């Protein structure tokens, strides 16, 4: 490290918080926003700072959303998050809606005043009735900021557990190991007299309890709300809203007893419905996902997801990290395709800084991202077979191929999974002759052959077809409403791929197709992935050829720097990862780290639709349907 | 061992037809020799490190060479827990429960920076700073993630450890050493029940202050 990071927060220059006193520049309205403004009047819709419009009366939010969906054809909500403007004294909830036919997303925002201490804020109306994809995202905002959503069908904490003390993404809430707002922390740098965090904090551990807390008399029941909501269908929220727990603190059994009185249609045969937990330790849930299924015999009649078993506080840590420091963390989001995630983050920051990578770097990015897509799909298909019951053997073949691609990653970047390869304005290293030869061998010889082999074994395989055709069906309009992205929505006949609908990088220079199928089932999701691998190969092949005209080693625009300052502003950038749309919503106050760092994760949002896909199928199919969504828990829980 | 065996081969008291068929060893040796080559790890992945664990078990690195091939999804059939990833507060009650359900003798490998000490996410409010805060660990491996070779190395280290154990003093044949670890509770924050008294005292203090 030759450059000196300045130490926060005293050394923060005028460009930081100080500049905020001057009114931030307002967004320029797009024609659609103007139309919205005309329809609802200039009092209701005003330009917001930096991007989007502000909806000034939160009671009209649902009307605005409905108008956007029905009249302006913004048919899915792509991103929903909140920002805590502590100085200004309000929370700003950011909604971004999207047309499935393409184009930039439209941003609208609403504000609620910040409450005192740990209280909940005023509620906002829930948009779940308009956009089903808002479901998990609203719960996440509730969980992280303590903003309740009125009318939400099942408003519980999603990543943390019911009863957790505090709202972690509020700016005045500090994690137990809190040391400062910005890295590098003083205990690490420049002195380096590092003390264990455990020795520094009052509880001698990474915990924090409210005053007067008595663990011996405390009765923990973090799942009560979950089981209750499954037994009743609708959740009861306490009228004072203080803790938002269910009124009856009963367990599933208690709830079942209560239900016994009021017979429902399903009770005709007097079959018992049972609730079964799959996960968080379960061989089929692709990590630490927990599916709670209600079963009638073997048929799934209801499904709820319990998430957060891998919630690693990515966003809170991301707001402490300096801009550059955060790149390796993005690797750990979706840890199967680290390189694809890095691109999303770097792209967004570049957007805010107004820089562009060099030609050579653009090609290297495409090369790495598309190889990542191929290896991720190999993995996804291998484990889909695993879920079908072909335990591990088919996966072995695909892992072999994947390892060959990882070899290339390793020799170029130094790591198999966590590559830390992208930089603002470029990439970290160029490929040597030998590495290029390796890439060519893979792209022109080995992988095409292996994909043919894979197809020969699977696509017409009778068992695969019998188990997957028609399973997990979700039609196009529902998929869009659920904000489904990635291969799953393309298997439902919607040609939605960020590389085409909102192009980035240099994808316009390559000749490739967006594969689309219409079955909207597990089989077509599998086939779309195979077709995409072939298209990615085409891109890689063209990329390797076109790259020859660029200058070797010219991989960084401007000077390399450790400490970046990003001008105050907001940006949403997104890329098409193998799992779907990965977006980053960043807010900068001009300092050396992000003021707000939000990850719009495709794995997380795709899970919204799982229930509708699974209900009515057998429990063994639930596993396959989950496999066909191809989630990675690091990205689901962040 | 071989000397003893050789001596035995020439001992006139041993009948001729048995001479090449008798081996002498210690009970410990034969016991550990068998155990160290039939360790069944639990099929249990937590985070990114689990991907490398799967790669270790797959074709190229081939865990089965060491007699460890059978990953069992049930803790009751497993001897080894590989804690392969970030341990979160929400997950740790389940991990402790799984550990309690494993029969003795049981071993734990802390794979990677996260399982060892919290790793890159240590400062996170939902992250436990290393699984050894709750369950005893036999082998730690560095790395984020450790390469498959590193995981294999940790297996060999664990084999060494198993080899050194003796029937005379292993805890699982002694009465009263069957320690069940109290499952942590998810209250306002994670509560390690072994520290409950101390936590109560401190929380009361902070209330009065
Ligand atoms: S040590 Fe690194 S690779 Fe392993 S789980 Fe932690 S963050 Fe992931």
What structural class is derived from the secondary structure elements of chain B? mainly alpha
Give the spatial strand order of the biggest sheet of chain A.
Answer: 1-2-5-4-3
CATH architecture of the largest domain in chain A, by name, is Orthogonal Bundle
How do the strands line up in the largest sheet of chain B?
A: 1-2-3
**Most extensive chain contact?**
A-B, 63 and 56 residues
User: In terms of per-residue confidence, which ranges of chain B show pLDDT below 50 for 5 or more consecutive residues?
Assistant: none
Silhouette of chain A = globular
Number of helical stretches of at least 4 residues of chain B = 7
**What is the alpha-carbon Rg of chain B in Å?**
22 Å
Write a structural description:
The complex is a heterodimer of chains A (638) and B (209). Chain A is α+β, with helices and mostly antiparallel strands and 638 residues long. Chain A has 2 domains: 9-150, NADH:ubiquinone oxidoreductase Nqo5 subunit (Beta Polymerase, domain 2, 2-Layer Sandwich), CATH 3.30.460; 314-637, Orthogonal Bundle (Cytochrome-c3 Hydrogenase, chain B). Helix content of chain A is 36%, strand content 13%. Chain A is built from 21 helices and 15 strands. In chain A, the strands form 5 sheets. Chain A has a 5-stranded mixed beta sheet, with helices on one face. The longest helix of chain A is centred in the middle third of the chain and has 30 residues, at 359-388. Helices cover 36% and strands 8% of the residues of chain B. The interface between A and B is large, with 63 and 56 residues. Iron/sulfur cluster binds next to helix 3 and helix 5 of chain B. The site of iron/sulfur cluster has 12 residues of chain B, from helix 3 and helix 5.
């Amino acid at each position: 490290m030759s450059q000196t990071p300045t130490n926060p927060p005293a050394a923060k220059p005028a460009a930081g918080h100080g500049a905020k006193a001057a009114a931030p520049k307002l967004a320029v309205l797009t024609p659609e926003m103007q139309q919205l403004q005309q329809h609802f009047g200039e009092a209701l819709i005003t330009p917001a700072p930096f991007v989007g419009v502000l909806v000034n009366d939160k009671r009209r939010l649902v009307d605005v959303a409905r108008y956007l969906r029905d009249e302006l054809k913004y048919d899915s909500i792509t991103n929903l998050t909140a920002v805590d403007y502590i100085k200004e004294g309000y929370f700003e909830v950011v909604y971004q809606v999207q047309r499935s036919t393409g184009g930039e997303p439209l941003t609208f925002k609403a504000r609620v005043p910040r409450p005192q201490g740990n209280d909940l804020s005023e509620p906002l109306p829930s948009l779940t009735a308009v956009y089903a994809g808002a479901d998990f995202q609203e719960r996440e905002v509730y969980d992280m900021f303590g903003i309740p959503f009125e009318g939400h069908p099942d408003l519980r904490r999603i990543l943390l557990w019911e009863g957790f003390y505090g709202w972690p993404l509020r700016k005045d809430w500090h994690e137990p190991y809190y040391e400062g707002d910005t890295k590098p922390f003083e205990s690490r740098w420049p002195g380096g007299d590092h003390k264990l965090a455990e020795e520094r904090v009052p509880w001698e551990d990474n915990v924090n309890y409210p005053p007067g807390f008595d663990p011996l008399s405390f009765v923990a029941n973090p799942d009560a709300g979950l089981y209750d909501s499954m037994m009743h269908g609708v959740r009861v929220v306490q009228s004072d809203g203080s803790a938002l727990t269910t009124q009856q603190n009963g367990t599933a059994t208690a709830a079942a007893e209560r239900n016994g009185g009021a017979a429902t249609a399903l009770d005709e045969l007097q079959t018992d419905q049972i609730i079964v937990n799959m996960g968080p330790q379960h061989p089929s849930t692709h990590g630490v996902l927990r599916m709670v299924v209600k079963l009638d015999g073997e048929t799934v009649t209801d499904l709820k997801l319990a998430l957060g078993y891998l919630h690693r506080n990515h966003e809170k840590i991301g707001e402490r990290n300096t801009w550059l420091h955060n790149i390796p963390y993005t690797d750990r989001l979706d840890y199967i395709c680290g390189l694809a995630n890095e691109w999303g983050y770097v792209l967004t920051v570049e957007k805010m800084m107004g820089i562009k990578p060099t030609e050579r770097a653009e090609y290297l990015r495409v090369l790495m991202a598309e190889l990542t897509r191929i290896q991720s799909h190999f993995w996804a298909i291998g484990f889909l077979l695993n879920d079908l019951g072909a335990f591990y053997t088919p996966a072995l073949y695909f892992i072999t191929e994947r390892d060959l691609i990882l070899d290339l990653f390793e020799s170029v970047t130094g790591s198999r999974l966590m590559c830390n390869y992208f930089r603002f304005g470029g990439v970290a290293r160029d490929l040597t002759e030998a590495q290029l030869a390796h890439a060519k061998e893979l792209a022109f010889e080995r992988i095409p052959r292996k994909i043919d082999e894979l197809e020969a074994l699977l696509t017409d395989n009778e068992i695969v077809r019998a188990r997957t055709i028609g399973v997990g069906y979700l039609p196009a309009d529902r998929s869009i409403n659920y904000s489904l992205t990635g291969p799953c929505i393309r298997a439902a006949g919607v040609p939605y791929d960020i590389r085409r609908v909102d192009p980035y990088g240099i994808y316009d220079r390559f000749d490739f197709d967006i594969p689309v199928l219409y079955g909207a089932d597990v089989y077509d999701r599998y086939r779309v992935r195979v077709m995409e691998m072939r298209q990615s190969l085409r891109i890689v092949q063209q990329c390797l050829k076109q790259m020859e005209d660029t200058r070797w080693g010219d991989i960084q625009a401007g000077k390399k720097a450790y400490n970046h300052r990003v001008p105050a502003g907001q940006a949403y950038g997104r890329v098409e990862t193998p799992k779907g749309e990965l977006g980053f919503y960043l807010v900068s106050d001009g300092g050396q780290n992000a003021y707000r760092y939000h990850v719009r994760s495709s794995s997380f949002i795709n899970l919204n639709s799982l229930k509708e896909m699974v209900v009515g199928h057998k429990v063994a199919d639930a596993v396959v349907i989950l496999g066909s969504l191809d989630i990675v828990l690091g990205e689901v829980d962040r | 061992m071989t000397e003893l065996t050789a001596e035995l081969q020439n001992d006139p008291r041993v009948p001729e037809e048995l001479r090449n068929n008798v081996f002498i060893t210690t009970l410990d040796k034969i016991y550990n020799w068998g155990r160290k080559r039939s360790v069944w790890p639990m099929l249990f992945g937590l985070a990114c490190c689990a991907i490398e664990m799967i790669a270790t078990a797959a074709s190229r690195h081939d865990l089965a060479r060491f007699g460890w091939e059978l990953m069992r999804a049930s803790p009751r059939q497993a001897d080894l827990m590989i804690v392969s990833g970030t341990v979160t507060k929400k997950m740790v009650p389940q991990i402790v429960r799984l550990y309690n359900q494993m029969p003795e003798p049981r071993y734990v490998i802390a794979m990677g920076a996260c399982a060892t000490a919290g790793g890159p996410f240590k400062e996170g409010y939902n992250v436990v700073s290393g699984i050894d805060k709750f369950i005893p660990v036999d082998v730690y491996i560095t790395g984020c993630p450790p390469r498959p070779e590193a995981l294999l190395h940790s297996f060999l280290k664990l084999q060494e450890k198993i080899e050194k154990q003796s029937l005379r003093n292993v805890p699982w044949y002694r009465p009263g050493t069957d320690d069940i670890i109290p499952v942590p509770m998810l209250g306002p924050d994670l509560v390690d029940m072994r520290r409950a008294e101390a936590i109560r005292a401190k929380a009361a203090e902070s209330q009065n202050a």
